[in-house]
What we know:
Elements: H1 3-16, E1 27-29, E2 32-34, E3 50-53, H2 56-61, E4 67-69, E5 78-80, E6 86-88, E7 95-99, E8 112-117, E9 123-125, E10 127-141, E11 149-156, E12 168-169, H3 171-174, E13 181-196, E14 203-204, E15 214-219, E16 228-234, E17 248-250
Region (Disordered): 243-264
Amino acid sequence: xxxxxxxxxxxxxxxxxxxxxxxxxxxxxxxxxxxxxxxxxxxxxxxxxxxxxxxxxxxxxxxxxxxxxxxxxxxxxxxxxxxxxxxxxxxxxxxxxxxxxxxxxxxxxxxxxxxxxxxxxxxxxxxxxxxxxxxxxxxxxxxxxxxxxxxxxxxxxxxxxxxxxxxxxxxxxxxxxxxxxxxxxxxxxxxxxxxxxxxxxxxxxxxxxxxxxxxxxxxxxxxxxxxxxxxxxxxxxxxxxxxxxxxxxxxxxxxxxxxxxxxx
Length: 264
């Protein structure tokens, strides 16, 4: 890595770890909407957010190799992969022994609400048509005391999901404050497909702030309704957004699978 990329990566880590996202957000718990109207122009809080680079080369693998009917695919949308869907295998590395964000309110694990945001994308082009993100978190005490708690979070990659998730597990962990806990986290993408217009060129998302998936949290008892970013997967520093399209151009190709728009 050259000096320029090292500098970009360093800035990414320094800024990213002291950035808070405080938003007005409609929260749903067991089908009941909780009012968070107090979330207006709240001050930015300083805390550690875990930033993890996703793996561009493995993301490209998931696109497959569609065969185009000429350069413009006979005017039809280009579908990735050419048939069915793909899982994002190895695209999102796991993290271990991570501290929770430092919160203004003394948060206990049992009161912690979590959700996954997926408004951003791995690719600017092609565009996501179907897909789902699933993340697994395991919390445990820093003092090595026995016990653990787990949470499984998920969201659709296209349709905004307002589902809230909670940790469940051993009481000594659930009753612990976040400052006394560490966690491990892993995320995967399943059932993905993409599509682009014939005239569009493939392109990565390269702005590190546009991470996906993004895990966020809120203390259900926090009177200020602060929302914290826990961890997110980000484009690597210095990533060139342009890459070689894996699609293969074949004059007058018999590629009926590429002539149909994907139905979510």
